[in-house]
Amino acid sequence: MLAARGVTRRFDDGTVALKGVDLTIADGAFVVLLGPSGCGKSTLLRLLAGLDQPDDGRIIWDAGAKPRSGEIGFVFQDATLLPWADATENVFLPLRLAGRSLSDSRAEITELLAKLGLTGFERTKPAGLSGGMRMRVSIARAMIGRPRLLLMDEPFAALDEFTRHRLQNDLRTLWQETGMTVVFVTHSIYEAAFLASQVVIMTPRPGQIATIRPGIEQTIESRRTDPEMVALVGAISADVARMMPTS
Amino acid sequence: MNSERWAPILFGIVGLMIWQGAVIFLHVPAYVLPGPIAIIQAFFADWQSLLLSLVATLAIAAASLFAAALLGIILALGMAASRWARAAIQPWAVVLQVTPVVALAPLIIIWVHQQFLALVVCATIVGFFPVLSYTAAGLAATPPALLDLFRLNGASRWQIVFWLRLPSALPYFLAGLRIAGTLALVGAVVAEFVASSGGFASGLAGRILEAGYRLEIPRMFAALALLALAGIAIYAALGAFERAILKRVGATSL
Fold this sequence. Notes:
Largest interface: A-B, 25 and 20 residues
Structural class of chain A: alpha/beta
Number of domains of chain A: 2
CATH class of chain B: Mainly Alpha
CATH superfamily of the largest domain in chain A: P-loop containing nucleotide triphosphate hydrolases
Oligomer: heterodimer
Number of strands of chain A: 9
Radius of gyration of chain B: 22 Å
CATH superfamily of chain B: MetI-like
Order of helices and strands of chain A: EEEHEEHHHEHEHEEHH
Number of strands of chain B: 0
Helix content of chain B: over 70%
Strand content of chain B: under 5%
Helix content of chain A: 25-40%
CATH topology of chain B: MetI-like fold
CATH topology of the largest domain in chain A: Rossmann fold
CATH class of the largest domain in chain A: Alpha Beta
Structural class of chain B: mainly alpha
Strand content of chain A: 15-25%
Largest sheet of chain A: 6 strands, mixed
Shape of chain B: globular
Order of helices and strands of chain B: HHHHHHHHHH
Number of helices of chain A: 8
Radius of gyration of chain A: 18 Å
Distance between the termini of chain A: 39 Å
Shape of chain A: globular
Largest sheet of chain B: none
């Protein structure tokens, strides 16, 4: 669906965030970018979204078709909701920017909020929602336009472990139901192993791709304790250990 | 009930009692320092003229607060729209702010023939700066992630301004407005003082000057007390307005 070809990104202060990154993202894949803080994962995500331009190399969409606005959903590390708008209005935002009316979209929004476990909170403003609920609204907002590509930048990093587990489950289910392509950034090995259909391990600055490892195909129920999952976590940990400079 | 809330009132009452007592026991003449009771008597002896003057001064302050809010928002939007505009406007806003309005007022009164308008212009110069600087700071403080989100969804420049930047800046604007309210009153009185020397004397500054010339010191204090109360009332009213609006939109005060 899209690919990065020799992508390099240098910042004004001279740091090289990404160096010669080659990555192909297949339709319907769940790609997890895993790496230490500052390895350029977020930069790569912004380049894929078209929010930033590479200094060298290119981001290529299949058949050269640049995505139209609304075809990419983006979930940030913080929920970044509009504090003055309730859950429904926040989810409505991309549709509003696309010129749709709230009355036409309300049913669709309510359904999506229900799917994310937010029934009864449609009219609640962000200040009245927990951290996990705010993130759910943020995910709903990214998905309401049925994007072909969902980009997620450490969305669960600020949540507690229990909430994170639930959201990981829900996200995987949504991915399986919708068949959309997801690129997910994290620095949690466990999260990468649990979510990914493909784990991309990146080196510290300058960010380069160290290893690409296939994920495991399994149902959610068996996944967390599955021996295969444990083996995958171990394998990724070994990859990371090899890649990190010894101190 | 929080007892600290009553502390300033109690402190004020005790202060007034000590003041009154000192004036009585030390035999301070009223033309040097009148006691609170003499001031209250002076107010009731002339309350119609004093209140009319207060209304005149408040009208100037209110009109200039409105003008300051409008001017502040427009200039802040201009500064947010382009770096060039920001670089061009900011230093001149500071120049206007640091130049004492008492020095500018004679010029403005000569240029603007309509007295009321001239005074409003003076008070607006004093009041607009906090609105401008707070609103500009608020417009610049829009979360970058939300800006990305709007751009990703193909938002136009105007959609970003009206649906994101302006609502995000609302708490900042209201904080600036609260400060501008009291400054507008100060500006109105200062301008009135300057204008009074040219014969314009409908505001409270006129009453204060007039009382000073006639050595009616208790009346002077009464006018002064009215001015202070008006300032407190403006500050409290704008504070309540700010809290009400922010509560309605679900944002928190700065």
